[in-house]
Design brief:
The structure is a single chain. The protein has 83 residues and is mostly helical. It is built from 2 helices and no strands.
Length: 83
């Protein structure tokens, strides 16, 4: 079986970590991803994106292979020249 610990809402552990996104609450799990620069289409996108999508997207923009064992997807909707 699994054991899941859920902290109290808005609880902050006073350790050396400044931020944590490991609770069951949505406000702790949702983090904006912001891209800016060459190859990025300006706008606000509501597509589902995850942290694992950052490396493949940046690799695609730079024209290099994504990191080994990369599991994410290229966030095509935010790129200028991708269909």
């Amino acid at each position: 079986g699994h054991v899941v610990g859920i902290q109290k809402p808005f609880y902050i552990n006073h350790s050396r970590n400044e931020a944590s996104h490991m609770t069951g609450y949505t406000y702790d799990r949702m983090v904006p991803i912001i891209f800016s620069g060459f190859g990025i289409k300006p706008g606000l996108y509501a597509d589902k994106a995850e942290v694992v999508d950052i490396a493949p997207t940046l690799s695609f923009i730079l024209g290099v292979l994504p990191p080994a064992l990369s599991e994410g997807k290229v966030l095509k909707s935010a790129l200028k020249s991708v269909n």
